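User: Hi! I have a protein structure encoded as tokens and I'd like to know what sequence might fold into it. I'm fairly new to this, so please keep things simple.
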């Protein structure tokens, strides 16, 4: 069973392990993901009511971290949010954890009448399953930047219109 919950500072080692285990991210990308975590949960974290980076976590029955999402309001926009990071422990992939995380992010954003959720991924074959994941969950390719990450490695920008399917809140955070 997947339990959706919150992260705190103590989850940092588990998060670092999970990000490495996916083999989807380079070391410099993992460093950036951990920077966002530290900015939010570290000792010098700010006290803004809505932080720049928000997190949703998934845990198994034993309370171990199985996945997480990081998202935040896109600066300079009205109601647009970026999904900065989503990762599920490889031993738990394909079992609905990523879908549960994404649904929770969407639910939270719809509660605050967000308009658009934006997510980016690579066009490389290695990201086929990731693109299927977004496509099956209502995300559509809004832009494709050819050779963005590297030659033959396009940047795909997916968006999901959040304003059209406002769901009633089903549970608290
Ligand atoms: C992409 C990811 C977050 C999806 O989470 P998940 O828990 O595996 O996804 P779910 O079980 O909710 O959904 C499975 C669907 O996602 C797709 N999928 C993506 N990666 C998959 C994987 N490794 N195993 C099985 N399905 C996967 C399948 O198309 C599947 O579709 P289906 O439900 O029609 O069969 C997860 O696989 C992951 O962490 N991948 C590595 C990191 C990554 O690519 N992050 C996104 C960076 S942009």
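Assistant: Happy to help. Inverse folding works backwards from shape to sequence: for each of the 173 positions I chose a residue that suits the local structure. Here it is:
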């Amino acid at each position: 069973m997947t339990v959706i919950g919150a992260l705190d500072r103590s989850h940092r080692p588990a998060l670092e392990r999970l990000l490495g285990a996916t083999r989807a991210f380079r070391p410099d990308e993992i460093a950036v993901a951990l920077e966002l975590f530290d900015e939010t949960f570290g000792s010098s974290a700010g006290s803004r009511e809505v932080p720049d980076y928000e997190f949703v976590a998934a845990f198994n029955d034993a309370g171990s971290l199985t996945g997480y999402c990081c998202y935040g309001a896109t600066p300079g926009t009205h109601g647009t949010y970026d999904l900065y990071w989503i990762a599920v422990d490889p031993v738990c992939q394909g079992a609905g954890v990523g879908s549960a995380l994404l649904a929770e992010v969407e639910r939270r954003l719809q509660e605050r009448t967000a308009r658009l959720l934006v997510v980016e991924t690579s066009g490389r074959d290695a990201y086929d399953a990731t693109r299927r994941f977004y496509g099956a969950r209502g995300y559509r390719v809004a832009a494709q930047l050819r050779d963005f990450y590297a030659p033959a490695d396009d940047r795909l920008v997916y968006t999901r219109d959040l304003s059209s399917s406002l769901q009633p809140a089903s549970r608290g955070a």
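A useful reference point when you look it over: The domain at 3-118 is CATH 3.40.630.30 (Aminopeptidase). Feel free to ask if any position seems puzzling.
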